[in-house]
Design goal:
The chain is an alpha+beta fold and 217 residues long. The protein is built from five helices and eight strands; from the N terminus they run αβββαβαβαβββα. The chain folds into two domains: 69 residues; 143 residues, Glutaredoxin. The protein has an eight-stranded mixed sheet. The N and C termini lie far apart (110 Å).
Length: 217
């Protein structure tokens, strides 16, 4: 009886210590997991903030470059090369008698933005007159440009120039953009197509059709 009375408290005490240790370990693990989750959420929040700031900065640059580019004078003697016939012509001759709509891009531009734009262009209720809409591209590989044309059912004239030829401020952003070249050789009505907002591209063409109805059929 004396042995049992001595052993039982020791066993009970040992069990109590084990349970206490287990509870402490569980508590520490819970705190650790909460810290990991908090840190993960903090990192995710910081990344979202950085992404938001990057997007805002990009939009800011786009707006500022759009404003600074408006009514940019274009050298009328700038030579364009027709990718199909290899013939050369000056840009001034193309817009000599009436304004013309131009899509400008390079091989480094957002191709998804261009592809989406042509889906919209090819489905316009009132399409462009073929002679009133041209593409000015800069590609090192003519084959890549023609492949891009074929893949996107582009049926408009394509001209090429060197990347550093068109002296418009927004060229530094390397985004694809639309603009109107007027008969006075000034570039106006700039627009950047965004894959996130295709409705803006549709609205842009509606506005251009209202302002320049002779560009459309």
């Amino acid at each position: 009886m004396i042995f049992n009375s001595i052993v039982f408290p020791k066993v009970f005490f040992s069990i109590f210590i084990i349970i206490l240790i287990a509870l402490n370990v569980a508590l520490l693990l819970r705190i650790k997991n909460q810290n990991i989750a908090y840190n993960s959420e903090t990192i995710a929040s910081e990344r979202r903030l950085e992404t938001s700031e990057t997007i805002n900065e990009n939009f800011r640059n786009m707006i500022l470059n759009n404003i600074s580019s408006e009514s940019s004078p274009i050298n009328p003697d700038l030579i364009l090369t027709n990718v199909f016939t290899k013939t050369k012509t000056s840009i001034g001759k193309i817009a000599k008698n009436s304004p013309i709509s131009i899509l400008r891009f390079s091989e480094y531009s957002c191709h998804a933005c261009i592809e989406q734009s042509f889906i919209i262009i090819n489905n316009l209720a009132h399409p462009f007159r073929e002679e009133k809409f041209i593409i000015i591209a800069s590609y090192e590989s003519l084959r890549d440009l023609l492949l891009f044309k074929s893949n996107n059912n582009i049926n408009y004239l394509i001209y090429t120039i060197r990347n550093d030829t068109l002296k418009i401020p927004l060229e530094s952003l390397n985004f694809p953009y639309f603009f109107i070249l007027n008969t006075d050789n000034k570039a106006t009505n700039f627009f950047y197509p965004l894959t996130s907002s295709p409705e803006l591209t549709e609205d842009y063409f509606l506005i251009i059709r209202y302002k320049f109805p002779l560009l459309f059929k």
